[in-house]
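Ops channel
N.P.: pipeline sanity check, posting one input/output pair.
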């Protein structure tokens, strides 16, 4: 993050607003990917599941989504799902309206449908295409969004490739290099990102990496980075993958991001994974990226993270104070100030 972006984020936090907003604009997805956190039974806390929620379409989806954005006033919006391209007509309306608000937008998709070439004109828009490994593995997991279909659908687009590393990938020497070679050579690809599979606490998914696999993956990414300029995984981020934030309370991403589900009112907590994520095994690139920013020393021993956490506490107290002025709002207990060391 640039210094100006950090300062702007602090100003939003201090006034009680979340700098980052993630919206699941639809519960629909044509894929049934193993390990998908959005459709995990624990995603919404276990009381309901994503596919059980009501969702919207057409002008109602556009107006309600903009209402959520105007309520939270974020600096950055992630449009997720389901798969957002299920609502591609609504996205065509939403993207220019969000861009006109000066907000950076990220659309995360499987690219099962054509990404419109005209979206490339929006400089604050990032299209992230999720790829689950090399073609033989990806095509089994993500059919109908196969490699063949993705390559047709990203022609004339500018995309970032995101791959979640599972234990199956981590166990195969040379796999990440082969993946990077293929996607880095594509003219449509701007950047390549990797996350590590993040499980729920107590889960036994076959995708979960062992500590030894995790260490091997981090070392391999560090080795590969000089040869692949499109791989955006700096040392500061890779260090965070070794020791992730220990809990949502210690995670800047969780603390500064609001995730809203497909009915546009249900909050997903404590972070985008929902449920009870195993933070000790977190591999979310967004979490690691902000953790790296948080460890940057500003003055002496004072870090950017210290300022973020302090700003967050001040912002929450300010929001509570404003709510307490309303007779219909219950008065919450005050939150003590504390700088996390």
């Amino acid at each position: 993050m640039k210094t100006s972006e950090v300062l702007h984020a602090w100003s939003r936090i201090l006034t009680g607003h979340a700098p980052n907003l993630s919206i699941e604009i639809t519960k629909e997805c044509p894929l049934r990917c193993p390990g998908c956190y959005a459709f995990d039974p624990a995603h919404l806390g276990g009381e309901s599941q994503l596919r059980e929620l009501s969702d919207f379409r057409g002008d109602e989806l556009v107006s309600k989504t903009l209402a959520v954005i105007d309520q939270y006033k974020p600096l950055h919006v992630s449009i997720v799902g389901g798969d957002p391209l299920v609502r591609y007509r609504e996205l065509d309306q939403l993207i220019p309206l969000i861009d006109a608000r000066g907000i950076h937008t990220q659309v995360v998709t499987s690219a099962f449908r054509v990404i419109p070439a005209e979206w490339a004109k929006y400089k604050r828009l990032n299209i992230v295409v999720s790829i689950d490994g090399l073609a033989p593995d990806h095509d089994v997991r993500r059919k109908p969004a196969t490699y063949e279909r993705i390559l047709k659908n990203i022609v004339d687009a500018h995309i970032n490739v995101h791959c979640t590393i599972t234990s199956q990938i981590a166990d195969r020497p040379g796999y990440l290099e082969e993946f990077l070679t293929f996607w880095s050579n594509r003219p449509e690809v701007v950047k390549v990102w990797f996350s590590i599979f993040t499980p729920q606490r107590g889960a036994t998914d076959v995708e979960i990496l062992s500590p030894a696999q995790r260490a091997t993956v981090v070392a391999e990414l560090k080795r590969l980075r000089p040869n692949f300029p499109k791989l955006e995984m700096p040392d500061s981020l890779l260090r965070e993958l070794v020791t992730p934030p220990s809990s949502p309370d210690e995670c800047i991403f969780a603390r500064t991001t609001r995730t809203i589900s497909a009915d546009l009112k249900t909050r997903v907590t404590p972070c985008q994974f929902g449920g009870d994520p195993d933070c000790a095994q977190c591999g979310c690139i967004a979490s690691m990226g902000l953790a790296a920013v948080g460890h940057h020393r500003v003055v002496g021993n004072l870090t950017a993270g210290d300022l973020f956490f302090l700003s967050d506490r001040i912002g929450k107290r300010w929001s509570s104070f404003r709510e307490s002025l309303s007779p219909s709002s219950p008065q919450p207990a005050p939150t003590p100030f504390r700088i996390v060391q």
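N.P.: looks fine end to end. The mean pLDDT is 88.
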